[in-house]
């Protein structure tokens, strides 16, 4: 009899990819995925530890499953991902109805852990095992799937930004070998995928073993994927400014499959704060880097991440961040109020008052929203290429993404999911663009 698995994913795209792989791993143990927790035999929360709010969500969500466990005592409840890694057995101490805790580097062992939990024991695995989990996961099934996919190529981080839990929850940087990635990409293309986003916490630090035994850069990997027939678009995220190598910058100008969108977080615009964040770059070096990238690919859309209210951030420091944003002009950006994370160096330092941080976040977001809106509005009248992914809200509408990752909706009966069409942008809405098929 097939058992039913409900999995809920929090956090970054790497968790989205991991969740897919966990579903596949448990598929071998007789599970199929379902869309609601009520019908599940096992509930898995794939969690994020990046900010306090993200971590606390897990416990409130677990609370909501209490009645299900009472009604159905055989129901297994598991916590995976970065909270599992960071808190381990504490999760079971705080929420005893949890049966299973598994970290991001050991989820290939899920079938064994599930069997253990099935015998009534608590199952915990937060090792950073020697073996590569990807070698131990079942081969990916061949079922048809949507036109876009994530593919993890690098995991972990050695940068140790003073605010960040990732080096602790995901461990040291590890890159997967080139041939495995190319094989996985080919399989995805056979299943209908036309766009792959290469993932890594520090993806541009990629240095996986190539077929020649040398360590290949991300740019070399992208050129290898460029040769995969049927793969039309390549993206990658997330990058660190210090790992934007010359060959990767050049690839943005030369590789037609590499899309003109780059997420390159800077976090702050004050050198004093960048230093305290242990970012090992300056505002000036970041701005020069953006100039070089734009010289290689003038239309590239730049995206970023920002933290406001980092310990000891003054009004002047904050204004330096606004100045940097004015200089760079972001097409889109994500901004966060600093959240002290246990075990990180910055957590020991004096914090900025909450109301000051709130006010800065609002001012920062107002500026970023203006830039995002201006970038989007400037698309009106232009032709873009859209990879269509799903039905829209209105009848006959179909939605996809442009090269620049803008959501574009078109009403037409001549478009199928998975198609790429040239689209003329005719309107710019709050979060998406509207277009018509461009006259050929
Ligand atoms: N590896 C990526 C992203 C890491 S997490 C990178 O280096 O860019 C995604 C974003 O969350 C970070 O870029 C940062 O802006 C934010 N973030 C990380 N730790 C945080 C913290 N303690 N408080 C607030 N925001 C944080
Ligand atoms: Fe965290 Fe910094 Fe590593 Fe990004 S580079 S994952 S922000 S430590
Ligand atoms: Fe969150 Fe872990 Fe990703 S902390 S952002 S899920 S790497």
UniProtKB/TrEMBL annotation:
GO cellular component term of the entry, any: cytosol
Cofactor(s) the protein needs: [4Fe-4S] cluster
Major subcellular location class: cytoplasm
Binding site for [4Fe-4S] cluster 2: 157, 161, 164
Reaction equations catalysed: N(6)-dimethylallyladenosine(37) in tRNA + (sulfur carrier)-SH + AH2 + S-adenosyl-L-methionine = 2-thio-N(6)-dimethylallyladenosine(37) in tRNA + (sulfur carrier)-H + 5'-deoxyadenosine + L-methionine + A + H(+); 2-thio-N(6)-dimethylallyladenosine(37) in tRNA + S-adenosyl-L-methionine = 2-methylsulfanyl-N(6)-dimethylallyladenosine(37) in tRNA + S-adenosyl-L-homocysteine + H(+); N(6)-dimethylallyladenosine(37) in tRNA + (sulfur carrier)-SH + AH2 + 2 S-adenosyl-L-methionine = 2-methylsulfanyl-N(6)-dimethylallyladenosine(37) in tRNA + (sulfur carrier)-H + 5'-deoxyadenosine + L-methionine + A + S-adenosyl-L-homocysteine + 2 H(+)
Cofactor stoichiometry and binding remark: Binds 2 [4Fe-4S] clusters. One cluster is coordinated with 3 cysteines and an exchangeable S-adenosyl-L-methionine.
Localization, UniProt: Cytoplasm
GO MF annotations, alphabetized: 4 iron, 4 sulfur cluster binding; metal ion binding; tRNA-2-methylthio-N(6)-dimethylallyladenosine(37) synthase activity
Pfam families in the record: Radical_SAM, UPF0004
Binding site residues for [4Fe-4S] cluster 1: 12, 48, 82
Domain TRAM: 377-439
Residue span, MTTase N-terminal domain: 3-119
Domain Radical SAM core: 143-377
SUPFAM superfamilies: Radical SAM enzymes
The EC number(s) this enzyme carries: 2.8.4.3
Keyword tags: 4Fe-4S, Cytoplasm, Iron, Iron-sulfur, Metal-binding, S-adenosyl-L-methionine, Transferase, tRNA processing
Residue ranges crossing the lipid bilayer per the database entry: none
Assembly and oligomerization: Monomer.
Task performed by this protein: Catalyzes the methylthiolation of N6-(dimethylallyl)adenosine (i(6)A), leading to the formation of 2-methylthio-N6-(dimethylallyl)adenosine (ms(2)i(6)A) at position 37 in tRNAs that read codons beginning with uridine.
Protein family: Belongs to the methylthiotransferase family. MiaB subfamily.
Protein name: tRNA-2-methylthio-N(6)-dimethylallyladenosine synthase
Native species: Pseudaestuariivita atlantica
């Amino acid at each position: 009899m097939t058992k039913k698995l409900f999995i809920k994913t929090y956090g970054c795209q790497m968790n989205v990819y991991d969740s897919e792989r966990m579903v596949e791993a448990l598929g071998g143990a007789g599970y199929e995925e379902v869309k609601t927790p009520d019908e599940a035999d096992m509930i898995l929360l794939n969690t994020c530890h990046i900010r306090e709010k993200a971590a606390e969500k897990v416990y409130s969500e677990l609370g909501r499953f209490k009645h299900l466990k009472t009604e159905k005592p055989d129901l297994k409840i598991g916590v995976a991902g970065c909270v599992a890694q960071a808190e381990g057995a504490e999760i079971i101490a705080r929420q005893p109805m949890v049966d299973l805790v598994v970290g991001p580097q050991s989820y290939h062992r899920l079938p064994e852990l599930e069997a253990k939990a099935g015998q009534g024991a608590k199952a915990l695995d937060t090792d950073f095992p020697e073996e590569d989990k990807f070698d131990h996961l079942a081969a990916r099934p061949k079922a048809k799937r949507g036109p876009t996919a994530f593919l993890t190529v690098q995991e972990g981080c050695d940068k140790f930004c003073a605010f960040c839990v990732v080096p602790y929850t995901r461990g040291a940087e590890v890159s997967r070998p080139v041939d495995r990635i190319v094989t996985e990409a080919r399989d995805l293309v056979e299943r209908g995928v036309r766009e792959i986003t290469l993932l890594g916490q520090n993806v541009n630090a990629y240095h996986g073993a190539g077929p020649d035994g040398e360590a290949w850069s991300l740019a070399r990997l992208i050129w290898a994927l460029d040769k995969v027939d049927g793969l039309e678009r390549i993206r990658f995220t997330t990058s660190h400014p210090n790992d934007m190598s010359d060959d990767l910058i050049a690839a943005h100008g030369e590789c037609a499959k590499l899309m003109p969108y780059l997420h390159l977080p800077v976090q702050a615009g004050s050198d004093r704060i960048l230093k305290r964040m242990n970012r090992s770059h300056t505002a000036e070096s970041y701005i020069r880097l953006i100039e070089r990238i734009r010289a290689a690919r003038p239309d590239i859309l730049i995206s970023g991440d920002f933290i406001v209210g980092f310990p000891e951030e003054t009004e002047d420091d904050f204004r330096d961040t606004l100045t940097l944003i004015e200089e760079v002009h972001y097409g889109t950006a994500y901004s966060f109020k600093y959240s002290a994370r246990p075990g990180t160096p910055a957590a020991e330092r004096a914090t900025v008052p909450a109301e000051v941080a709130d006010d800065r976040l609002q001012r920062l977001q107002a500026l970023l929203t203006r830039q995002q809106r201006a970038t989007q509005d400037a698309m009106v009248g232009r032709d873009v290429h859209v990879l269509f992914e799903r039905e829209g809200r209105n009848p006959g509408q179909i939605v996809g993404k442009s090269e620049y990752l803008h959501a574009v909706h078109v009403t037409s009966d001549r478009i199928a999911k998975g198609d790429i069409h040239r689209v003329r942008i005719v309107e710019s809405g709050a979060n998406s663009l509207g277009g018509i098929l461009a006259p050929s």
